[in-house]
Amino acid sequence: MAIIYYDKDADPSLVKGKKVAIIGYGSQGHAHALNLHDSGIEVVVGLREGSKSWPKAQAHGLRVDTVSGAAAWADTIMILAPDTEQPAIYDDYIAPHLTKDKTLMFAHGFNVRFGTIVPPPNVDVSMVAPKAPGHRLRELYVEGFATPGLLAVHQDPSGQAKANAISYAFALGITRAGLLETTFSEETETDLFGEQAILCGGVSELVKAGFETLVEAGYQPEVAYFECMHELKLIVDLFYQGGLNYMRYSVSDTAEHGDYVSGDRIITEETKYEMSQILKEIQDGTYANNWIAENKAGRPWFNEERRRQQEHMLEQVGANLREMMPFIDPVTVKPGE
Fold it and tell me: How far is it, in rounded angstroms, from Cα 337 to Cα 324?
């Protein structure tokens, strides 16, 4: 049975006695730093010299130092740089300052799980992983609410790694919603699988396939966009509130009937088999090794695929339609960005 920690399980004084370095100031980094700062925690943001985020963090009222300087100063170091950049940052600027009794923290287990970062045995290694993008973590904290998160402990020489991580999560606001205990391996493998099979890869291909089917059958691209992309948010919001049952309760009987008669024609046993193969490639390290190699080669396939996907008709039609709907606060990513 899942173990979930809430505010009542946290000792807020633990993190208040720590000096916390937040390495990186992107989506997660800015949210962690600001939430901790607003919770009364002593925080320094660690960035590369010349980073564009340096003045941004200072403008938000935060102290900023180099990664090396922040790591030397702190007794708790949370690494929130992109997965592919973390090993080099760790080796060059953090590892030299990992002395006994310090804590190394992550918000995703990728590099520990696949061995690209191997911390020394005399430091605590833990993870607090919010289950939301950083901007949403920050928004909910400011509003007095929260996003749930995951907790894992990889090394615990102090005997206090879990208690300290729960306290850190309390300062982020996560224990308001619930902090579920897991492991580095489980978090990493399920996170990668969810991204690839459902949240990003699966949904993206499903939306594109539906759009292309309607357009190729002679329907207007704009109508196809509304049916296959725009209305998806309405359905996902129902999932979020009350699961599949609430979605089916909320839509028409015709839509519910269509769910039952057509869903398993789209997601077939063959699809589930491919999902199992994706999971195996994550578990045995094939995916991680391929992605690491792609980065070392300068991302040639990744960059070309990004450009190709950005030029899909669905994206062009959608950008034009969203310009006519300012109430959704439209954002356009230009090819190459």
Answer: 23
Strand, helix or coil for residue 193: helix
Across the range 214-237, mean pLDDT stands at: 97
Active site residues: 108
Angle, nearest 10°, between helix axes 27-38 and 161-172?
A: 90
Please report, as a single letter, which amino acid is at residue 155.
Q
**Measured between alpha carbons, how far is residue 37 from residues 19, 31, 76, 126, 273 in Å?**
11, 10, 14, 20, 46
> Rounded to whole angstroms, how far apart are CA atoms 26 and 33?
10
**CA gap 92, 102 in Å, rounded:** 17
Residue 336 pLDDT greater than 80, yes or no: no
Instruction: Classify burial at 19, counting beta carbons within 10 Å of its beta carbon; exposed 0-12, middle 13-18, buried 19 or more.
Output: middle
For residue range 248-307, what is the model confidence (pLDDT) as tens digits?
999 999 999 999 999 999 999 999 999 999 999 999 999 999 999 999 999 999 999 999
d(CA 27, CA 246): 31
The three-class DSSP label of residue 33 is helix
Question: What pLDDT, in 10s, does the model give residues 171-208?
Answer: 999 999 999 999 999 999 999 999 999 999 999 999 99
Closest CA to 260 of 270, 269, 248, 278: 248
**Structure token pair of residue 223:** 């109508």
- 136 pLDDT exceeds 80? yes
Angle, CA 54 vertex, CA 53 and CA 59 arms, to 5°: 95
Distance CA 108, CA 104 (A): 12
pLDDT above 80 for 335: no
Start-to-end CA distance of the chain, whole Å, equals 43
Per-residue CA distances from 96 to 68, 69, 90, 188, 212 (Å) = 8, 11, 9, 26, 53
Whether the CB-CB separation of 98 and 123 falls below 8 Å is answered with yes
* Closest to 327 measured CA to CA, from 230, 224, 225, 204: 230
* Per-residue pLDDT at 334: 78
